[in-house]
């Protein structure tokens, strides 16, 4: 096989790239349909962005371990400054202040903070002596690194992104070996404080989303409209769907945001249960590959990066699918590699590039079986 396929092509992680290409192509077809049978404006820009960010991922995969460790804290600090800048001069869109208008691009720093928090925490725990892991010295600094961006993102307000940052950070902390009792204690404390956070920490529209999630049929034409129409679209698809470009919910504008947050519902109406299996199966293969990269890593830094980046993509997928099926409140999280949106694509391709980077380290590292 090595004589037929050039070595640089053969050594790429095709077990991940193939399902990734399937998701991108499938997403382009759904976006084509969401635009009423037109490649513009969604499908064409979706494919173009993927092409650009795929090149970025391949470049990122060439980073050495030393270079990644060197840039971890500067990248985190730069994004933290950008988040402060969002509060001062940020661009307001959709009722939220989340973007920096740089002229040539509207940048959402909170999106890039998701992989950045994984990288900086992996850097922190990679250099921390093992004996300090079960102590407060491993918890307090890491907690500060997580809560600083979470607090700034909550001010925008953006509950979904803040939860994603928190989730990615918690996964890295757990994988680093912090005592399980700390996580159990944090979970119990969160359960006790949840009512207080709900009534005094959430915005009124966020509280409405929770009430809508609990009983969407109470206001099907108001706050429950999104979830109700999404369920109708998914249910009407049946086993094999209505057919490509034949979805009535999206074409007749009953389904809100059919090209972003609710793209899975758009897909399910036209491709049915079969299409859903293809999408979920492709994501499952990518997750399995990410976990295999983590298992194969023989150093703590690479292992934590791989687990954290895989968890970040998983959070996107899990919350989006639960949201469109009415199993979670609507929080505005797109479906990776299928939804239209530059910031989301950039974040997830950074995660893919980081996983490819660790995979490359694994293939070049001596197989000692020990974590350095």
TrEMBL record:
For this UniProt entry, what is the primary localization, expressed as one broad class? membrane
Q: State its Enzyme Commission number(s).
A: 2.4.99.28
Q: Where in the cell is it found?
A: Cell inner membrane; Membrane
Q: Which reaction does it catalyse?
A: [GlcNAc-(1->4)-Mur2Ac(oyl-L-Ala-gamma-D-Glu-L-Lys-D-Ala-D-Ala)](n)-di-trans,octa-cis-undecaprenyl diphosphate + beta-D-GlcNAc-(1->4)-Mur2Ac(oyl-L-Ala-gamma-D-Glu-L-Lys-D-Ala-D-Ala)-di-trans,octa-cis-undecaprenyl diphosphate = [GlcNAc-(1->4)-Mur2Ac(oyl-L-Ala-gamma-D-Glu-L-Lys-D-Ala-D-Ala)](n+1)-di-trans,octa-cis-undecaprenyl diphosphate + di-trans,octa-cis-undecaprenyl diphosphate + H(+)
Source domain of life is Bacteria
NCBIfam families, sorted:
rodA_shape (TIGR02210)
Q: What does this protein do?
A: Peptidoglycan polymerase that is essential for cell wall elongation.
- What is this protein identified as? Peptidoglycan glycosyltransferase MrdB
| Species in which this protein is naturally found | Qipengyuania mesophila
Gene label: rodA
